[in-house]
Each structure stands twice: as C-alpha cells, then as structure tokens.
C-alpha cells in the first residue's frame, strides 16, 4: 500500500516537472525567451513584408494622388464611379466564376479518364507541362496563337481552314473592273454592265487589281466567239506585267479568270447564270439572257475570310481565360489524381456490383469522395485568379486592354501608369484584399474541420 502511494507521488512529480520546470521551462524543456529569439526573425520578416505593407496601403488609400490631402473614403467611392474600374470588377467576376470552374472540371475529367489507360502518366505529364512555363512566356505564346493573321495565328489558321472547308472562298478577292469600262458597281459589292447584252454579240468584261497568286498558272485568255442564239463573253485580267497591252482588248499573253460567276439579270431577277472556263470565256442561253444585263456578283470579289478577332473587345476576356485554363488544368489534374489514388476501390467495386453504371459511379461515388480535394483546388484557383495580372497585361492588345481590364491590372495602371494616383491604387489593393479574405476564411474553416477528423 505504501509503495503504490509512493509511486503515485513520484509519477505526479514527474508530470509536474514535465509540464513546467523551474525558470519557465515548457514541455520540451526550452525557455520562453529562447523560443522568442528563434521566432523573432520570422516575425520581423512577416511584419516587414506583410503587416506593414497592408497597414500602409490602408493609410495611403485615405489620401489623394499627391498624398497630402485627406479624402477619407473618396478613393473607395471612385472604385464604383469610374467606368474602367467597373469593367475590371465585372471581368473579375467572370474570371472567378469561369476560370476555376473550367480548370477544376477539366482536371477532374483528365484525372478520371487517364486512371485506367496505359499511357495515362505520359498524358498527365503533357497536360502538366504548361505549369513549368511562366505567365509572361505563356502570354507571349498565346499572343501569337490568337494573332489575327491566319498565316501566323494558330487559332485563326484552324478556324479559317474549317470555314473554307464548308464555304467556298471567293476566286478573286479584291478584283474590280477597269475604270470607265463596260462594268459599273451594282451597289451590293458586285458589278454589272452599263447596257443590255444581245445574243450573237460577244461581251468583254475586263478586270484589274487581281492578286498575282490568284492567276499564277492560269491559262491565256481567249476572245469569245459569237454564237447565234447565245450570249458569249470573256472575263480576264486586263493587265500585263511590265506594261504594254491595250485596254479593254484581250491581248495574247493576258490571263483568263476561271470560275467567275456571271449572271444575266432582268427586272431584278437572275434569269441565267454560268461560270467562266479556264480561259475566261462563258456562254449564256440567248433565249433567257438576250436583252438582260450581265452581273458579276459580289461573291466573286469578297475578301478572303480572315477568321475570328480573338483579341477584339468582345472575345478578349474569354480568350485570355482559355490561356489560363491551358496552364492550370494540369495543376488541378495532378491534385485530383492524388486524391483519386486514395479513394477506396472497394467502394467503387461495390457500386458496380450493385448495378451502377460508370456514370452513376462517377457522379454518386467518385465525386462525393473527392469533394474535399475539389474544394481545395477550386479555392486555390479562385484566390489565384483574383490577382491575375500577367496574362492580361501581355495578351490583351492596346485596342482591347480596357475591355480585358481586371483589378490587378487596374491597380498597376493607377499606381504606375501615365495618370499616377497612388491613393486610388492603394484603395484597389485594399479592395482586392477584402475580396480574398472570405475565400481564405472558407479555406481555413475547411482545414480546421479536416484536423478535427
């Protein structure tokens, strides 16, 4: 009895000594001032790089551009009064809603689909590779991808190729009739003869301003032969390189324009039509075309399809979001794939045994089990896009920068642009901090819940 009581007393003494030793020692036996010394450098850096800038930004936001006049909350009121800043706010909302959602959804799809394929690791590596590229480099790449000229811009090269597959391009874009000739503008982009035509009388329709690449390899033009009961004619390039030749006359070495649509119009209706042969000649039935006017419709001369203006005011923000998704979908895929590797396979197999299809397994089992990982990815990307700057600054051209404006870019322009207003720039910085805080709070709550589990 005595020995057990002694052991209890000794154990209590040991515990008390472990909790607090003489001189303020903790469980680890370290004095408080020693811990403070080790923490001091980190606290100094935290204060210098985080606390002080935030405090100074809040203070500076209460003054005008010069920093001498106190304006209170005036700079914050200007955030919602300036059209450019309102555009930036709207664009930030679009960024926060679209970019993280699309990136996370693509990451989830890639992670699930590549789980069972042999080359899944190689595919993940390729998708993740853009993360190794800086935002500046990615912006330069996509500035070239979205170039308006299809010969340089990949996006428009593909788009124009698809368009021209289903829509026949104009044979001679930009061509026009010789001045003071038999043709005059018809008002719709095409040209028509000044007078009516008659069967048996050949019609000469000379054109100029035809690009050399459009007639390279073309046959020599031939003068139309008169045919009783038919309207004949020739459409040709009335131009000789180096000069020479007679206007409105088919000279021996001038080129015929093949594939030009010729229409006979009477009373506003097309009564006959034909296309020119390789030598530029055409034949229309005289019964329908006799006494009509000939028209070369605008479709013969329409400018070549140039594709979509990706960096125009209407599409510049979606185009830049596309570049962002290209970079960050790999990040989302890797995190989600890591979470997917920890999902118990027994649950998936049990669902399949119970008769669930792959879509039901994905929607009712896989996604709910991955919900914590999806939240982590989504919140991380939301914080990231709230301060997006590099891609917008590099990709958006000067003509569309106002339409693509975001708060971080507006912060840069207000603080360091032509019209410097550090008070307004500080107000934007504080406002951005306030926007990030709720997302960070949600993230902290999620972390605490995870720890309690």
TrEMBL record:
InterPro entries assigned: MetI-like, MetI-like_sf, UgpAE/MalFG_permease
Domain of life: Bacteria
Pfam families named among the record's database cross-references: BPD_transp_1
Organism of this sequence: Streptomyces siderophoricus
Protein's name according to its UniProt entry: Sugar ABC transporter permease
Topology class, membrane: Multi-pass membrane protein
SUPFAM superfamilies named among the record's database cross-references: MalF N-terminal region-like, MetI-like
Keyword Ligase applies: no
């Amino acid at each position: 009895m005595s020995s057990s009581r002694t052991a209890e007393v000794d154990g209590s003494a040991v515990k008390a000594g472990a909790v607090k030793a003489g001189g303020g020692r903790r469980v680890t036996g370290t004095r408080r001032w020693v811990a403070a010394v080790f923490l001091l450098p980190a606290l100094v850096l935290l204060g210098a790089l985080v606390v002080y800038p935030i405090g100074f930004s809040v203070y500076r936001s209460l003054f005008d551009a010069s920093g001498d006049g106190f304006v209170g909350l005036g700079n914050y009121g200007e955030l919602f009064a300036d059209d450019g800043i309102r555009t930036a706010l709207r664009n930030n909302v679009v960024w926060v809603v679209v970019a993280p959602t699309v990136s996370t959804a693509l990451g989830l799809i890639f992670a699930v689909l590549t789980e069972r394929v042999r080359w899944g690791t190689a595919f993940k590596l390729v998708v993740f590779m853009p993360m190794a590229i800086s935002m500046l480099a990615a912006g330069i790449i996509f500035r070239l991808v979205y170039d308006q000229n299809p010969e340089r811009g990949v996006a428009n090269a593909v788009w124009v190729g698809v368009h021209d597959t289903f829509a026949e391009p104009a044979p001679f874009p930009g061509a026009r009739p010789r001045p003071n000739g038999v043709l005059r503008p018809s008002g719709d982009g095409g040209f028509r003869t000044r007078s009516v035509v008659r069967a048996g009388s050949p019609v000469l329709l000379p054109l100029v301003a035809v690009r050399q690449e459009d007639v390279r390899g073309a046959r020599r033009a031939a003068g139309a032969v008169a045919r009783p009961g038919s309207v004949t004619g020739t459409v040709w390039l009335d131009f000789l390189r180096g000069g020479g030749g007679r206007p409105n006359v088919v000279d021996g070495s001038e080129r015929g324009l093949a594939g030009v649509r010729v229409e006979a119009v009477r009373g506003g209706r097309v009564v006959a039509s034909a296309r020119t042969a390789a030598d530029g000649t055409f034949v229309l039935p005289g019964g329908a075309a006799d006494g009509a006017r000939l028209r070369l419709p605008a479709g013969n001369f329409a400018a070549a399809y140039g594709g979509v203006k990706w960096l125009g005011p209407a599409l510049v923000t979606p185009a830049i979001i596309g570049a962002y998704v290209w970079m960050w979908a790999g990040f989302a895929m890797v995190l989600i794939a890591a979470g997917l590797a920890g999902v118990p396979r027994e649950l998936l197999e049990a669902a399949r045994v119970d008769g669930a299809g792959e879509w039901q397994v994905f929607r009712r089992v896989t996604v709910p089990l991955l919900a914590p990982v999806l939240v982590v990815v989504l919140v991380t990307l939301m914080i990231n896009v709230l301060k997006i700057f590099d891609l917008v600054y590099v990709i958006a051209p000067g003509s569309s920068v106002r339409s693509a404006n975001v708060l971080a870019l507006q912060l840069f322009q207000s603080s360091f642009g032509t019209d410097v207003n550090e008070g307004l720039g500080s107000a934007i910085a504080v406002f951005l901090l306030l926007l990030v805080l709720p997302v960070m709070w949600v993230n902290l709550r999620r972390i605490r819940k995870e720890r309690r589990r």
